[in-house]
Design goal:
The protein is an alpha/beta fold and 296 residues long. It has a single domain, classed as Pyruvate Kinase, Chain: A, domain 1 (3-Layer(aba) Sandwich). It is 62% helix and 11% strand. The protein has 5 helices and 5 strands; from the N terminus they run αβαβαβαββα.
Length: 296
């Protein structure tokens, strides 16, 4: 009985140590969510103004068939940029992104397009390598704190292959940060671009622009920046979602550890009570045997 009690107490100490780690990771992730959300909000105005500028230029050059705005007639390949995390312990964060990517792969293949994968994050790279699936290019080490320089390098790699004709479309698969409780894996097409509608006054005069240089030159300069912005936005959204997913996963782990400690403590108390009861019975039995021997 003593050995069993020692085993239970040793397990309780082990669970307590694990609980300290999960609680610390939960607090760290919670503190990083706010900063990650601020980065998302700070990057949004630039993306909105860039979108508005592209919409204005596109409307002024309505007859212009820019390669990044027009779908190719014979589309056989599609580049898929997948955003995962560098570290685990984030619940179903990476599994949901990979599942959404597989759904996109199935859709693309049904349309007669072969996907070529570009991955950000060690977890995605490990998953594809484990299954022996090809990866065109990968970037690791910055999933929690992505930089614009990283986004530019990724966008340049994607655009280089698009311009060279190696891929006919560019899609992004990442986790969209909705709330600290809800994150959704999404798939969006980056190229050919679909310029979002820009809110304009319903009444009043329409602003006319004169462009210098010509709209074609402006689009050549703006559209690559637009792709960089979309990639950067995906990285920022994914980083915020990763912190939120990790905080939720560590919170659940901490709660489970607390519940397990309660159960083990109850089992330890029962074992100790049984041990004490056995000792008392042995003492009483020994005393009764001595009394009986003395009476004889």
């Amino acid at each position: 009985m003593g050995a069993k009690l020692r085993t239970i107490r040793r397990r309780i100490r082990s669970v307590q140590s694990t609980m300290k780690i999960t609680r610390a990771m939960e607090l760290i992730a919670a503190s990083r969510i706010l900063k990650a959300r601020q980065r998302v909000e700070e990057a949004r105005p630039f993306a909105e103004r860039l979108t508005a500028a592209i919409a204005d230029v596109s409307s002024a050059a309505s007859g212009l068939a820019h390669p990044m705005l027009v779908e190719r007639a014979d589309r056989r390949t599609a580049g898929v940029f997948l955003v995962t995390s560098d570290r685990g312990l984030a619940g179903g964060y990476n599994a949901n992104v990979l599942k959404r990517a597989e759904e996109l792969f199935a859709t693309l293949r049904a349309e007669g397009k072969e996907p070529k994968v570009f991955i950000s994050g060690r977890k995605g790279v490990s998953s594809f390598r484990f299954r022996g699936r090809p990866i065109e290019d990968s970037w690791t080490g910055s999933s929690e704190t992505p930089t614009y320089d990283l986004a530019k390098r990724i966008a340049d790699a994607l655009m280089e292959r698009y311009v060279a004709g190696e891929i006919d479309e560019i899609h992004g698969v990442y986790t969209d940060f909705v709330t600290p409780i809800r994150q959704t894996a999404v798939a969006k097409r980056f190229v050919p671009l679909v310029v979002e509608a820009v809110a304009r006054p319903v009444e009043g005069p329409t602003t006319q622009y004169e462009f210098e240089p010509e709209p074609e030159a402006l689009l050549d300069a703006l559209l690559p920046r637009y792709v960089e912005t979309r990639v950067f936005s995906a990285l920022l959204e994914a980083a915020a979602a990763e912190h939120a997913a990790r905080r939720r996963a560590m919170s659940a782990a901490t709660e489970n550890a607390e519940e397990l400690i309660k159960v083990l403590t109850r089992v330890a108390n029962q074992a100790r009570q049984t041990e004490i009861t056995t000792e008392i019975i042995e003492i009483v039995g020994g005393a009764e045997a001595l009394r009986t021997a003395a009476g004889e």
